[in-house]
């Protein structure tokens, strides 16, 4: 190392030590809070998993297919759901798929419930978006493995930290796309609403949100895909599901198991993506 680099390195900013001290402070003073959150989330998630596994797999498959048909009015999609999920059952990965499904749906729901209101707020307040933008950039560019360390320290192992990590990773997508959709509403539509005496609330619910709905739903599909991409990483902190056999296959170089689990993740991703999309449905 050259002298200048050595001099710069000699004045190292102790970012790592500051971070350690911060998390030591949190675990020392607020461990009760993080333990309560983890326990509450784990109870809900494990309860949903147990409820779905208590039902016969065929009943759950038919219920998901019926939901797909109700959403899209497409018998082809409903048939594809049945075939895809029966393939997963055939591969002996039904329990892991149910765990992944609960985790992904819960993470996507939480991300949308938090992200859409924040995106609406940012669209109506440019100062809020300027503050949010670097935070969103950090959330999307920070390596996902970095999330695992503090979450693991604060919340321990299990589905709860897996859910929290997934929400952190997926939430920027609905925020950004909701902001884009609201800010892209044509001004003539807003002016027409104002001319008819619409209040700000009426403009939001009757003009802005209907116009921005395709973009917001694109945020939902992105959210689902991002959540599924965290399945394997979340398995490293004890979140059971399809990520567990993938990690096991990686550690043991088990090609058949890795291929089976990977295909199950792909099938689940396609099913959720087709069910969440709007427009372009196939008609019977």
Short description:
The protein has 284 residues and is mainly alpha-helical. Helices cover 84% and strands 0% of the residues. Helix 11 runs antiparallel to helix 12 (200-229).
What attributes characterize this protein structure?
single chain, 284 residues, mainly alpha, 15 helices, 84% helix, globular
Structure commentary:
There is one protein chain. The protein is an all-alpha fold and 284 residues long. Helix content is 84%, strand content 0%. It contains 15 helices and no strands. The protein has helices at residues 3-10, 15-29, 31-54, 57-72, 75-90, 94-124, 126-141, 144-155, 159-170, 172-183, 187-195, 200-229, 231-235, 243-252, 255-276. The chain is globular, with a radius of gyration of 22 Å. 33% of the residues are buried.
**Low-confidence parts, pLDDT < 50 over ≥5 residues?**
280-284
Note the main sheet. none
- Helical content band: over 70%
Mean pLDDT: 84
Regarding quaternary structure, what we see is single chain
What is the fold's blueprint, element by element?
Elements lengths: L2 H8 L4 H15 L1 H24 L2 H16 L2 H16 L3 H31 L1 H16 L2 H12 L3 H12 L1 H12 L3 H9 L4 H30 L1 H5 L7 H10 L2 H22 L8
Helix pairs in contact: 3-6, 3-9, 4-5, 5-15, 6-7, 6-9, 6-10, 6-12, 8-9, 9-12, 10-12, 11-12, 12-15, 14-15
């Amino acid at each position: 190392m050259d002298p200048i680099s050595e001099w710069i390195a000699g004045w190292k900013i102790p970012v790592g030590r500051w971070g350690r001290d911060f998390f030591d402070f949190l675990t020392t003073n607020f461990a009760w809070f993080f333990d309560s959150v983890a326990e509450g989330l784990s109870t809900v998630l494990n309860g949903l998993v147990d409820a779905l596994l208590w039902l016969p797999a065929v009943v759950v498959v038919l219920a998901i297919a019926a939901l797909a048909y109700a959403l899209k009015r497409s018998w082809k999609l409903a048939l594809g759901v049945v075939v895809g999920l029966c393939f997963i059952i055939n591969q002996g990965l039904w329990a892991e798929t149910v765990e992944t499904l609960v985790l992904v749906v819960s993470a996507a729901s939480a991300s949308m419930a938090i992200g859409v209101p924040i995106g609406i707020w940012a669209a109506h307040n440019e100062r809020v978006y300027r503050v949010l933008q670097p935070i969103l950039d950090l959330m999307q560019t920070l390596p996902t493995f970095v999330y695992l360390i503090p979450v693991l320290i604060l919340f321990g192992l299990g589905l709860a930290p897996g859910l929290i990590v997934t929400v952190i990773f997926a939430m920027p997508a609905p925020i950004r796309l909701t902001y884009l959709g609201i800010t892209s509403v044509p001004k003539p539509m807003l002016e027409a609403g104002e001319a008819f005496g619409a209040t700000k609330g009426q403009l939001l619910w009757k003009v802005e949100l209907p116009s921005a709905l395709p973009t917001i739903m694109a945020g939902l599909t992105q959210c689902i895909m991002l959540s599924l991409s965290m399945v394997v990483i979340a398995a490293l902190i004890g979140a059971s599901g399809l990520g567990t056999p993938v990690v096991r296959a990686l550690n043991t170089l088990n090609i058949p198991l890795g291929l089976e689990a990977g295909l199950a993740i792909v099938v689940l991703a396609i099913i959720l993506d087709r069910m969440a999309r709007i427009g372009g449905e196939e008609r019977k």
